[in-house]
Amino acid sequence: MPETARQIADDLRARIESGELTPGDRLPGEPSLVRKYGVAKMTANQALKILVSEGLAVARPGSGTYVREFRPIRRVANDRLAKSRWAAGQSIWSADVARRPLVTDVQVHEAPAPHQVSRLLELDPGAPVIIRSRKFLVEDRPVQTATSYLPADLVRDTAIAQPDTGPGGSYARLAELGAEPVRFAEELRARMPSDEERMALNLAAGTPVIEICRTAFTADDRPVEVNQMLLDAGSYVLEYRLSS
Amino acid sequence: MPETARQIADDLRARIESGELTPGDRLPGEPSLVRKYGVAKMTANQALKILVSEGLAVARPGSGTYVREFRPIRRVANDRLAKSRWAAGQSIWSADVARRPLVTDVQVHEAPAPHQVSRLLELDPGAPVIIRSRKFLVEDRPVQTATSYLPADLVRDTAIAQPDTGPGGSYARLAELGAEPVRFAEELRARMPSDEERMALNLAAGTPVIEICRTAFTADDRPVEVNQMLLDAGSYVLEYRLSS
DNA sequence: GAGTGGTCTAGACCACATC
DNA sequence: ATGTGGTCTAGACCACTCG
Questions:
Q1: Which residues in chain B, range 177-236, keep a C-beta under 7 Å from any nucleic strand D atom?
Q2: Does residue A26 reach within 7 angstroms of strand D, measured from its CB?
Q3: Last residue of a domain, one of B26, B41, B67
């Protein structure tokens, strides 16, 4: 009887979806599946791998395989970019989570703009930009990385070129420079992460990422920031509000 | 030397990312990997499976494993919902692809609203709704499924309850009923598909899906439609425009 | 130390695609 | 008819966790 691994996975999946096994529960281990289904150990292993690759379970070597837990962050694009937030000195994150996330691995440097960035910022190819990259932790788990690009000629001597951008963040600083961002375009993709990205976000196998590229424009349609974000898809629900 | 499968996968990935192997190319087969690396056939198989699960390659049984090809559809949320489109009798799809997609598997029926839908439509639990489900093909490939829910009391005797909703689609019909949708909220998640969903969209292993739940509101903030969509993530780039 | 998942081997059979 | 990926077996060793 081939197709055994899939069938075992189907059985376990059904038990998860029926609620018999709830998030955090330990799944039957390989030896127990070998006994129950009379298959080779490797077949049992592959059955469990199927669930892991579907994002339904997480394997913890030396311990067991567990039903995965979800607790998505709600990210409301419109609210978080509302001027009222950052103008009041708040982080745009205050719209997403009650507790402000930990920002780590902040790196700021100046370099020539990558191809695509210079196009989006309407700069000459290779023009200098300030590059701010950082990582966000919520409840000790990395959920997002972000890299912002801003025209160096505009922000070089401001707090934006410092690790700490001050109250209200870089948008408040841009406003002070007469380059207040009022319009935004977000371009969004979902895909599987590279190994590097999986490492950076500490992702379980079988978790996709959401890639967002946001360009911020001033009232006279000048692009002043490109922000390239990478989200752990399992940690997020995104919301957008539109009117026709 | 353990870790062999990963290393083989790393080698192949590097050759893909360097451009030595381009989309559509055939990867070295299992027998050739067995010879080159001196490993068991199953190890070679697993190495190829890693690339497939990362979405970088597609296996075609009996033929070979190939570098995957991408040709995303650009879906601009704002444009497609603009009244000017559907008011002119166009499909909202005309914003996304030059050639109108094929709509198949259209099914319309009336049934009690599922929990979440009745909540979003602000209906009594179990109130009757018209359910329209359909699938969209672009260039013969299924790229999206969609299921709409509309209050049955509002649309029961209109073209919306028919498979063909006429020029401009259901939004034009809603407008004729004095329930023109002018505001929309889209809630978006990315995840790995279930087997069922993988089947429906004919997805390669390692391809995530994007789940969008859109609620349409009238000018007086009455919800009149909930549309639950499932997109093949590899076939789409989504764009949202916002202003603060 | 016992149990866990992770990985590998060397062989086997199958269904399928391509020629 | 040949070659392909898909899957299975039965055994093995490893690194890890947990009590």
A1: none
A2: no
A3: B67
